[in-house]
Write a structure and sequence with these properties.
Blueprint: H1 3-6, H2 23-35, H3 39-52, H4 61-74, H5 76-94, E1 104-107, E2 116-120, E3 126-132, E4 143-149, E5 155-161, E6 167-169, E7 187-197, H6 202-205, H7 207-237, H8 242-270, H9 277-305, H10 308-312, H11 314-326, H12 333-346
Length: 351
């Protein structure tokens, strides 16, 4: 008897955003599962997906996000490798900048006590000097989009070849128990040659900045789906009581809310309703909805399953740890406060 009949549950491979069958997404899930645990295979997968994935805002944004969610449902470390590669390609397309072959990342975080500065050289090139925090896989990638401070207090994006001598990833700083393979330590730049991507502050002001943040939320959703499926399987392992059914129902509600928010946001992006300030507002709302849903799934699945899967099942324990770390890209209460401030300043709300 097939496992799905024996356990009385059926679960797709893909993390469903769009209704209907998708053999391509199921195959992608399997490829991510095969790449899990191998950074080289994950980077190869990123390059392959980047060659065919749709661009955000080009009419198939929901397909792009289902791709990211499916990768995350299969393995979050793989998704965390692929997502910034796709984001970098999107940034370069938006800037009408050439995309060099190879793997890409995006290093745009700021941190206390660190500063990366960019100055034009006498020959017209730009040189980056200083430290950049939170540079995921910098020692393994070929290229990256990096933001740096320029004159006048502005920030600007640059494309950079990470294989040059002036780029030094700092080893030994990544002690995380989640996303262990995605080393995100700082990088020191010593007069590293770089090429501008867009004008001053273009990186932060472009519509794609908000859209890229929603791509990350799609990964959170997929990670939550992967965790939730363990709870779904548990109802076939023994006869569920009322509490078990309540936990399963709660998880379904949270995932449904996140899915509906993502699908609606994708439609807004593709129809032009998420440009400018409305796009930033939309991203803040939807990222918050998805992050809260994923955190609720983690808590509810933990209550429903107890400690055994966390201490006895490598796959489930890793999914939980990976998702907990990935979700901290959301700024929680600070992002909620920023959303409230925006509503206060505009003096209007759509409800």
């Amino acid at each position: 008897m097939p496992p799905e009949e024996e356990d009385h549950v059926r679960e797709p491979k893909r993390a469903v955003l769009l209704a209907g069958e998708s053999n391509a997404q199921d195959m992608l899930y399997d490829r991510a599962a095969s790449a899990a645990g191998s950074l080289a295979q994950s980077l190869d997968l990123a390059v392959d997906v980047g060659a065919s994935a749709p661009q955000p805002g080009a009419g198939a944004t929901v397909t792009l996000w289902e791709t990211l969610a499916t990768l995350a449902a299969s393995d979050l470390s793989v998704a965390r490798t692929v997502e910034p590669h796709l984001d970098a390609i999107a940034i370069l397309h938006q800037a009408e900048h050439p995309v060099a072959p190879g793997s890409w990342g995006v290093f745009a975080a700021e941190g206390p006590g660190t500063r990366l500065e960019a100055k034009p050289n006498h020959d017209g090139a730009w040189l980056l000097t200083g430290r950049k925090p939170w540079c995921s896989l910098a020692g393994k990638l070929d290229h990256a989009i990096v933001t740096a401070h320029v004159s006048g207090g502005e920030r600007r994006a640059f494309s950079i070849d990470l294989r040059q001598l002036g780029v030094h990833a700092t080893p030994g700083t990544w002690v995380s128990r989640g996303l262990t393979a995605v080393d995100s330590g700082p990088v020191d730049f010593d007069a590293a040659s770089a090429t501008p991507v867009g004008a001053d502050n273009w990186y932060l002001r472009r519509d794609g900045f908000a859209w890229g943040g929603l791509g990350v939320a799609a990964c959170w959703y997929g990670g939550a789906v992967g965790v939730a499926r363990r709870l779904l399987r548990s109802v076939g392992e023994r006869t569920p009581d009322q509490l078990a059914l309540m936990h399963l129902g709660d998880v379904d509600r949270h995932l449904h809310a996140a899915r509906v928010a993502l699908v609606s946001a994708a439609a807004d992006i593709d129809t032009g309703r998420a440009a400018g300030a409305p796009g930033g507002l939309l991203a803040a709302r939807v990222r918050g909805i998805v992050a809260e849903a994923a955190e609720a799934v983690l808590a509810t699945v933990g209550h429903g399953l107890g400690p055994a899967p966390l201490v006895l099942e490598e796959d489930h324990a890793r999914r939980v740890a990976d998702l907990q770390v990935y979700l901290r890209q959301h700024h929680a209460e600070r992002d909620a406060a920023a959303l409230g401030r925006h509503l206060q300043e505009t003096g209007s709300a759509p409800w």
